Amino acid sequence: MAGLKEVRDLLALRGRLETQQISQLLATPLPRIEALLSHLERMKLAVRVSPASDDACFPGSCRRCPQRKSCLSEQWTLLS
């Protein structure tokens, strides 16, 4: 099972990740990852990245997007 350090290190290596991706990469249940991310957020080490701040997604472009609105999912990153 992954802990705070593993989640933080993974975010440091990959930059931005979705909760589901973190769960799969660390082979840890999703509820545990959500709890660890919430804890990192309270410690001001990680932050949720909202879809509106994602530079890669432009309004109206999801119709042509091969991932079909995958940019609308919540991602996490470390605070600088």
Q: What report would you give on this structure?
A:
By secondary structure, the chain is α+β, with helices and mostly antiparallel strands. The protein has a single domain, classed as Arc Repressor Mutant, subunit A (Orthogonal Bundle). The protein has 3 helices and 3 strands. The two termini are 26 Å apart. The relative contact order is 0.22. The model has no long low-confidence stretch (mean pLDDT 83).
- How many domains? The number is 1
CATH architecture: Orthogonal Bundle
What CATH calls the topology is Arc Repressor Mutant, subunit A
By secondary-structure content and strand pairing, the structural class works out as alpha+beta
Give the overall form.
Answer: globular
Features:
80 residues, single chain, 3 helices, Arc Repressor Mutant, subunit A, 3-stranded antiparallel β-sheet, alpha+beta
Short recap of the structure:
This protein has about 80 residues and is of the alpha+beta class. Helix content is about 40%, strand content about 10%. It has a three-stranded antiparallel sheet.
